[in-house]
Amino acid sequence: EPGRVGEGDCLEVLRALPDGCVDAVVTDPPYASGGLKAGERVGSTVAKYSVAHRAADGTWCRRRQPDFAGDAMDQRVWGRWCREWLRECERALKPGGYCLAFIDWRQLPTLTDAFQLAGLRWRGVLAWDKTQAAHAPKPGYFRRQCEFVVWGTRGEVVARTKAEGGGLFPGALTCPVMRDGKKRHQTQKPVDVMRWLVRCCPPGGLVLDPFAGSGTTGVACSLEGRRCLLVEATPAYAAIARERVARAVESGLLSAGA
Questions:
Q1: How far, in Å, CA of 205 to CA of 200, rounded?
Q2: 151, 99 Cβ separation under 8 angstroms
Q3: Choosing a second label site near 55 at 20 to 30 A (CA), which of 65, 99, 110, 188?
């Protein structure tokens, strides 16, 4: 089927997948890096990732969305956890399949280690330039306008023709960050960013996203002619993902005359 959204702990779902069943993994896991102190790290993800905005009555507030799990670990535990789910992704990938995972600058070294410890071939780092719309921490700092994507493969890269979705893929993309009021998830990525990444999967192939959030990977897959298998642990976000993916799949079928 074009799009499927499962609900539950990603490790349990991943362990149930057969070997070599997916063409690519494209995902945005919890970074567990928000906040400078332990008390801030274990706090609400709304406080860490939602930008305050001015309400109609002139007061400042944050957009309330459900918190998501997995973002309160310290760096050592987070690294071990990443190794576990990446090891299952490596097993589920077909030979030569791609694994792409978002990360910020603080956890970038740990994630590259986890890729290699899981048996994946670490190939490099991609950059998403969020433009001047990105958050600037304080005067005198460089603007934190880039997020990164660690990418690797299961074994050697399998060469593909242009018709098979091969060729050189751009190593960076400039796309403004989404405005907080339009997000269905606190860390939602723009659809265009996800479309850039799912093209590593051959047309008609299956993309796995173990941390689906609001389902943007599935929407991108529908627009790019790929199938998707999404997993989300938070029930409220799993419901949003199912709704968005179903709508995207239906829209694609209608536009194709099916």
A1: 10
A2: yes
A3: 188
- CA dist 123 and 96 (Å) reads 12
Q: What is the pLDDT of residues 99-147, one digit of tens each?
A: 999 999 999 999 999 999 999 999 999 999 999 877 767 788 888 899 9
Give the H/E segment covering residue 128: strand 121-129
Q: What is the DSSP letter of 226?
A: -
Query: Cα Rg for the chain, rounded, in angstroms?
Result: 18
Contact 244, 8 (CB under 8 A): no
pTM, two decimals, is: 0.84
What is the per-residue pLDDT across 157-179, written as a single tens digit (0 to 9) for each? 988 887 788 878 999 999 998 77
Q: What is the full DSSP assignment across 26-78?
A: EE-------SSSHHHHTS-HHHHHPPPEE-TTS-EE-------SS----HHHH
- Integer Cα distance of 52 and 8 in angstroms: 30
Give the whole-angstrom CA distance, residue 185 versus residue 213.
6
Closest among 226, 250, 231 to 241, alpha carbons compared:
231
Q: Do residues 19 and 88 lie in contact, with contact meaning Cβ atoms separated by under 8 Å? A: no
